[in-house]
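Thread: "does anyone have the structure for this chain?"

Original post by V.I.:
We have the sequence but no experimental structure in hand. Need at least a predicted one for the grant figures.
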Amino acid sequence: MARSATEAPRRATNGTATRPKRAIRDLQSAVEYIDSLVNYEKQAWVDYKRKKYSLARMSCLLSALGNPQKKFRSVHIAGTKGKGSTCAMLGAMVSNCGYTVGVYGSPHVRTVRERIQVNGELISDDDFAACIAATAAAARKPRVGTPTYFEVLTAAAFRHFADVGADLAVVEVGMGGRLDATNTIQPEVVGFTSISYDHQEQLGNTLSLIAREKAGIMKPGVLAFSAPQVKEVRAVLKQAADELEIPLKFTGEDVEFSLRFEASRGIGRHTRLCLTTPSSKFEHLHVPLLGEHQAINCGLALSIVDALKSRGFTLDDQRVMDGLAHVKVPGRMEIIREKPRILVDVAHNAASVNALMRAIGQNVIADSMVVIFGCQKHKDIRGMIRGIQLGADKIIFTRTSSPRSADPHDLAAEYLEQCGRVGQVTESLEEAMDIALSAVSREDLICITGSFYLIAEAVRKYSEPQPAGV
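Reply from O.Q.:
Generated one for you, tokens below.
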């Protein structure tokens, strides 16, 4: 039985990690092992202190594993929203130029193997089990101690990238940056997606404090790029870069960048961008992911592609564009069923919900939209609901499967207070879907959003059946 996420990590009497309950030989036993570890992603409350979030244990674990993170070059991506999409686009563009590229991200939607990919392919069951087994064995060595769920997955990803001889790893920060387990790499380039309010209990209750934590991935001698930021965030990132005496470039300011929304018969509604540097020129490039926010993420990814050219990577612009064209990211404006139309998106803070509502309004034609919404209790609930009510014709509040889930009755009360409208309340996604299905017609849209946990459940239960062999 998996150990409660609120319990302390299991330790042997000598201070080292205990042996897994059974040998790790396959995917199931590997998942059982990591599920037995402390998982801060699932805890109802996390006290963000150096004692809990320390790079010392992660460094010891990687050392015991042979320091796999030193065997490949990397790019490190931090931010509040858009990290996963940026990593996916960057990975696809570089891999299409003939390089072996690993991408590490979190959380996952369908399977934990999504977190570790090489050239767009998920790590295999056997390789996942082998890397987790190797990491578990390393954790039992003296002075390492019991790692967390995220630390084991991060170390296993680094081990896999080293095993396959990755030329580049694109690594997404889990939370924050300064004390994140991924901050053990020495990257070629670091990038910052849009930074806004999220995880305030851990990172701080002002944008300056949040930005300072994320700026912690900057390192001496490492190029830094950022998507456009609000003034407060921009100042913090600039100060951090100045202290390290490294260049920091913002797309739209230091990197020539523009975007526009358009519609055509062949592609439909979409966004195009232009980005120009002394060594790259991308004109009217079609962004495969919907929404203006994804064009901004794409601009950051292209800026990093250009920077990698100066670091010795041979990247042909046409092959870069061809690689971008086929990018798909699970849980980002993903239509999982056509009849009725069900769209899922992992928007989980106020800024991403606002971006989602704008993107749906621009790109999806529907007579009306029913939103099923559930989120974590420590989120900016007021801000998220303010964003949702701008696009929803009907809102159904529900509970996520996480211990951190907000009470749907509290969500409905906030909605009533803000908007003067009554939302329906359910205790489960199934109940919410029953109500939504009874309310929509053929031309309507059901949108499920607010939490990775809710989206994962929706994808599992309501995705269109795949044809045999797919």
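V.I.: this helps a lot. The radius of gyration is 22 Å.
O.Q.: and The first strand starts at residue 73 and ends at 78.
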